[in-house]
Amino acid sequence: MGRMGGTRSYSANPSDYQLLEEIGHGATATVYKAIYLPSKDVLAVKCLDLDRCSGTNLDDVRREAQTLRLIDHPNVLRAYSSFVVDRNLWVVMPFMSEGSCLHRMKTAYPDGFEEAAIASILKETLKALDYLHRQGHIHRDVKAGNILLDNKGTVKLADFGVSACMFDSGDRQRSRNTFVGTPCWMAPEVMQSGTGYNSKADIWSFGITALELAHGHAPFSKYPPMKVLLMTIQNAPPRLDQDCDKKFSKSFKDMVAMCLVKDQTKRPTAEKLLKHSFFKHAKPPELSVKKLFAPLEPLSNPAKPLQLKDAAQLALKNMPSADQEATSRSQYQRGVSAWNFDIEDLKAQASLVHDDDDDGDIHECKDDDRSTKSSLGDKTAASCISSSIVLSNDLCKSWVIIPA
Q1: Which of 18, 224, 294, 327 is deepest in the core (most CB within 10 A)?
Q2: Can 342 be counted among the known catalytic residues?
Q3: What pLDDT score was predicted for residue 62?
Q4: Domain boundaries, the chain
Q5: CATH number at 19-94
Q6: Residue 152 marked ligand-binding
Q7: So what CATH class is 98-295+317-404?
Q8: Active-site residue identified among 60, 130, 141, 159
Q9: Is there a contact between 259 and 206 (Cβ–Cβ < 8 Å)?
Q10: What pLDDT score does 144 carry?
Q11: Residue 138 class from Cβ within 10 Å (0-12 exposed, 13-18 middle, 19+ buried)?
């Protein structure tokens, strides 16, 4: 039975839906713009290929469908209906016409948004996280590519492809021990074997997303994934620089610093963070967020750049190592954020991390809080990361919905 969408309900009959152009894709799913024929409503339909899911991933698929259908919050992308078609699971969702914050930045704001827009977007995103955490969920992939916008300025947090429900064994406070997400946004505890993590991992990712919206890219985004893992564990947490980021308020800088604390017990909850002074004066999104759309043309086929990127990554594997590293860094500088976590790819990227240049790269960022620097050496950190990857490499795949 379909859930209610406003005053309408959407059926579980695939013949009621006309799939149009592809608007997003991932390791096991493709998202289409669609028309619901009985009412002519424009929707998004996510089609998950069950044949491409391993046993573990199939459990994730079932959890995702269940989670989305139970979601009821204005800032979380929900599911109106879900049903099996042949060997695919179809999930019917709202169509977010203005795409993701990542696409906005790539299209017209390569250096990031103004603080007023950032405050509005982050406040709405934080409301979504507060709701999810209260319901016992960890999102685990908070980033600009998963914050979707529509033409009214509505902000919704999307992509439960790697989400986790802490209620599934009856203990809503238990810690997770799976390595899932996108490395630039990952909390240190997610990367390390045996430490476990909880909803505070989303707060770290939220802080990284704040930096991403401010600069147009995430910290360490020019490096290969394995090197990002090492740098996140070994370096002091990234910050808004006092000198280079003078255009941003002290309140914004303080809020980011509160999120990016390596000790997860010292990070605020989403509920507490909403009370921070940075969010108290945030404008309604229909005012500040809608201004971001003014200079932009409609996105005709947002999935095409991602398809081209995937093809480029296949070619990347066959390049000489020196050319591969240069190309990889160039891609990250352009804002690639939806890395496909395949264990062999990670091993290949790890081979690019040379001992003779690690120190220079790791210390090129300012160390504003040396007391938080991890005591892990290169070998210990690499061992922790390797153990974490082996622990759950089937889960290490994420995808991004980027509607037109």
Answers
A1: 224
A2: no
A3: 65
A4: 19-94, 98-295+317-404
A5: 3.30.200.20
A6: no
A7: mainly alpha
A8: 141
A9: yes
A10: 94
A11: buried
189: part of which helix (H) or strand (E)?
Answer: helix 188-191
Confidence at residue 175, expressed as pLDDT on a 0 to 100 scale: 53
pLDDT tens-digit map of 167-197: 333 333 445 555 445 689 999 998 886 778 8
pLDDT at 373: 34
Q: What angle do CA 208, 124, 174 make, to 5 degrees?
A: 65
Averaged over successive runs of 10 residues, the pLDDT of the chain (404 residues) comes to: 56 96 82 95 91 64 70 90 88 91 92 96 98 91 93 88 40 46 84 83 97 95 88 92 88 97 96 97 90 63 53 56 49 37 48 46 35 37 38 33 36
Q: Please, which residues have CB within 8 angstroms of residue 214's CB and are 6 or more apart in sequence?
A: 112, 113, 115, 118, 240, 245, 248, 252
Beta carbons of 262 and 374 less than 8 angstroms apart: yes
Q: Specify whether the CB–CB gap between 218 and 184 falls below 8 A.
A: yes
Annotate 123-162 with DSSP letters as a single string. Answer: HHHHHHHHHHHHTTEE----SGGGEEE-TT--EEE---TT
E strand or H helix at 45, and its extent? strand 41-49
Rounded to an integer, what distance in angstroms lies between the CA atom of residue 190 and that of residue 91? Answer: 28
Which among 56, 75, 78, 244 is positioned nearest to 149, based on CA atoms?
75
